[in-house]
C-alpha cells in the first residue's frame, strides 16, 4: 500500500521532512532549556537548517511550540473520546474512573513536556489562548457525555451540562498540574477516588 506522503511531489516531501525536523529539534530545545530560555537559533542549529527556513514554517518559537502542544494534547483527546454509553450509574462510575486514571496517568507519563506547557501558558499570551481553546474542547466533549446521561435518566436533569463539565474539567486540570509538578501530598489513587466519588454521586441519581 502506497503511503500518502509518497504521492506528494519531491519538493513537498522535502518540505514535510524539514518541518518535522524543526518540530523534533524544537521539542529537544524546549525540554533541555525550558520555554523561556529556548530560542529559534537553538532549534535551527539542532535541526541543521538555514535560519530563514524556520520562518517559512513557523512565525516564532511560540508558533512552533503550539504545534507541539496540540500534538501532545491529541493523546489526551483520545481519552476524552472513549465511548461513553453507560446503562447504569455503576457503569458510568466505572467509565468515569477509567477516563480520569488514563488522563492523569498520561499527564504523569508526559510530565517533562507538560511542565514546559505549564511554563509557556504563564509566559506567552498566544499559548495561553491556545490552552483556553484546548480546555474548551474538553469541556464541550464532557458536556456531551453529561447530556447523554441526562437523556437516559441516569443524571440529574436540573443541572446545566456545560457548567458541570466546566467544574469537572477544572478539578481534573488542577490535580493534573499538581501531579505533574509534584506539588501535592496525595497519591493518584486518592485523587481519583475522591474526585470521581464527588462528581458521580453529585451528578448521577
UniProtKB/TrEMBL annotation:
Which parts of this chain does the entry mark as a DNA-binding region?
39-58
Where's the HTH tetR-type domain? 16-76
In alphabetical order, the GO MF annotations are: DNA binding
Note the PROSITE patterns from the entry: HTH_TETR_2 (PS50977)
This protein's species is: Metabacillus litoralis
Q: Does the keyword Disulfide bond apply?
A: no
Its taxonomic placement starts with:
Bacteria, Bacillati, Bacillota, Bacilli, Bacillales
Q: Can the keyword Repressor be found in this entry's annotation?
A: yes
Domain of life, source organism? Bacteria
| Keyword terms, alphabetized | DNA-binding, Repressor
Looking up Gene3D superfamilies in the UniProt record yields: Homeodomain-like, Tetracycline Repressor, domain 2
What is the protein name stated in its UniProt record?
TetR/AcrR family transcriptional regulator
